[in-house]
Amino acid sequence: MKHLLILASLATPILPQLKADDWPHWLGPERDGIWREIGIAETFPEGGPKVSWRAPVAHGYSSPAVADGLVFVTDYEITSGEIVNNPGGRIPLQGRERVHALDLATGAVVWTHATERAYNLSYPGGPRAMPAISEGKVYVIGAEGDLLCLDAKSGSLLWSKDLQKEYKTVSPFWGFSAHPLVIGDTLYCVVGGEGSVAVAFDKLTGTEKWRALSAAEPGYCPPTMIRHAGVDQLLIWHPESLNSLNPKDGSVHWSLPLKPQYGMSIMAPRKEGKILFASGIGRVGAAIELDDAAPAAKFHWKAKPKEAVFCANSSPVIVNGVIYGCDIDSSTLTAARLADGERLWQTQDPVFGKGANVGDARHGTVFLTRHEASGKFFLFSETGDFILASLSPEGYQEIARAHLIEPTNEAFGRPVVWAAPAFAGKSVLLRNDKEIVRVNLAQ
């Protein structure tokens, strides 16, 4: 039942507007899972959308990032050992953890930075966290806690930290997975260790600004910034509680207990209006009401076993009071009402295939991205299928589907691809453990 989940999830941004062509952060320029490009096809041509290029990569779960005409993707090149996906134990490997910069137009390699790094993880198939791009710099957290700052144009190393050594911690069972968050001059990371679950660094120098929180495990949920009642709040969800911090000094605004199974706090809390939603494995979920007058919060409702949607690998999207997400227990795309958690519908079609009924399969995964101009959703399934669909409170309506990349990894005896897509230049970028592909989605 235990196993690697990569994910994390979305932030409500406190960011300057970035050009829509780029995808420089986890789930887009504003970290909300919305693609704002215009001129995108309303369906797929016969035979599927056109592949612009394919380029080889090695093992990895991390999503690509795109900025200023470059695609940044991380992988792991194994030199000794073999990947065995054992949900109950760590597997040792020897190899090189790499960061590649590819030309967005052609897929040609511009530069590669490699670090020798032994792995000792469960589900050890490569880096988890997506790179973050900010002002010509690339920020990367490797699966064993190598934090790197690279020059985006040349790949030269500007500064680095070994988080395990510096913070006297060990890698999480399924690896460092929380995507780094860059806002202003600060880089926020989930680390671990006594008093350092959350750490803020100067993004230019790597100098620590502050550290905060202690927990038996740091979890896998990325730092998430929200703004409510005129106050910026940095959300850190470790496996014991959801915490709101002052992003300037790490002091705690509020903390509420929210404990998923196996230390697997993964999805970033999602906000609509004054309500936050967070959920995870073990059918743990809650809507949290934010105070309008001060940085404070209370539970609005806690999920019952057949309510809400229990997300993990992929991040849900909330639209007009409805949560759309991939339920980790039932392996279904599920819609639930934010107001009270009532489920509206669920289907395995986008997860395993149209008409599929895989029963009690666990951890089925589909990634969701909403296209702003059309209101439709682009879905990327663990089967390697790319889907255009309409999601509403009434149900799931599939518009088009194309098989674009092979599932090269394995989970619970079935082939999977578990890396979220990136969208840039009127195209989608997808990766598995063998290649990264750019596919044209222009009208």
Tell me what you see in this structure:
The protein has one domain: YVTN repeat-like/Quinoprotein amine dehydrogenase (Methylamine Dehydrogenase, Chain H, 7 Propeller). The chain contains two helices and 36 strands. A hairpin with a 4-residue loop joins strand 25 and strand 26.
Quick structural summary:
The chain has one domain: 7 Propeller (Methylamine Dehydrogenase, Chain H). It is 2% helix and 45% strand.
Topology at a glance:
Elements: E1 34-35, E2 51-56, E3 65-67, E4 70-80, E5 91-103, E6 109-116, E7 119-121, E8 132-134, E9 137-141, E10 146-151, E11 157-162, H1 163-166, E12 181-183, E13 186-190, E14 198-202, E15 208-212, E16 224-228, E17 231-238, E18 241-245, E19 252-257, E20 270-272, E21 275-280, E22 284-290, E23 297-302, E24 317-319, E25 322-327, E26 332-337, E27 343-347, H2 349-352, E28 366-371, E29 377-381, E30 385-392, E31 395-403, E32 409-411, E33 414-416, E34 422-424, E35 427-431, E36 435-440
Parallel strand pairs: 1-28
Antiparallel strand pairs: 2-36, 3-4, 4-5, 5-6, 5-7, 8-9, 9-10, 10-11, 12-13, 13-14, 14-15, 16-17, 17-18, 18-19, 20-21, 21-22, 22-23, 24-25, 25-26, 26-27, 28-29, 29-30, 30-31, 32-33, 34-35, 35-36
Main attributes?
36 strands; disordered N terminus; Methylamine Dehydrogenase, Chain H; mainly beta; 5-stranded mixed sheet
